[in-house]
Structures are given as structure tokens and as C-alpha cells.
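--- STAGE predict ---
source: upstream dedup step, 1 unique chain passed
mode: sequence only
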Amino acid sequence: MPDPKVEIVVLVTTSSEEEAARIGRALVEAKLAACANVVPRIRSIFSWEGKVSEEQESLMVLKSRADLFEELAATIKTLHSYRVPEIIALPITKGSPDYLAWIRDMTRKRK
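--- STAGE serialize ---
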């Protein structure tokens, strides 16, 4: 099991700012993420189904814990409009101790 003291940043692209806000709010309300930042209007260039595509998307930046990632990712998949959404977690290797403690305090306690 991942260390509950390891905080993570999770990147998720969405089809719109509204979709990112809806998913982000659900994750914060469920205490799977302490915070969801929504960055509107990013330009994504990617390969999909054999061709290079370019779309306008929004980026959601979530702060959470490694031990919540599986449930967080599953919840995102149920709420997301994409068949294969981007859900990428990066460990936070350094951070303000007070901020990292806040992430732990705002997310679901282990059962």
C-alpha cells in the first residue's frame, strides 16, 4: 500500500473548464483531493486512433495523497467524458510542511 504521508499532484485534462470544475468539486467534496486547480484553454496536440489531433482542453491540477490515487482515478473515470482520460500522478518531493499537512488534513482518513 502506498505511504499515506506521500502527497501527490495529479494532472487531468478535460474537454472544458466546466467539466474540470464539476469533477474537481466532486473530488474535493468526497475528500479524495484537498484542492483542484482548473487551468482553462490549454492547447493539446496528441496522437489518437492513428492520427495527430489538436484540441482545446482544460487542465485540472489536483493535490491528494498516494494512498488515495486508485479511488481518485476510478472516480475521475466515472465522471469524465473521455474514454481514456489523462490521469497522471507525480509525487511531491518537497513542499511547505504546513501545506503538506493541510493536504493530509483535508483528504479522507485511512479506514
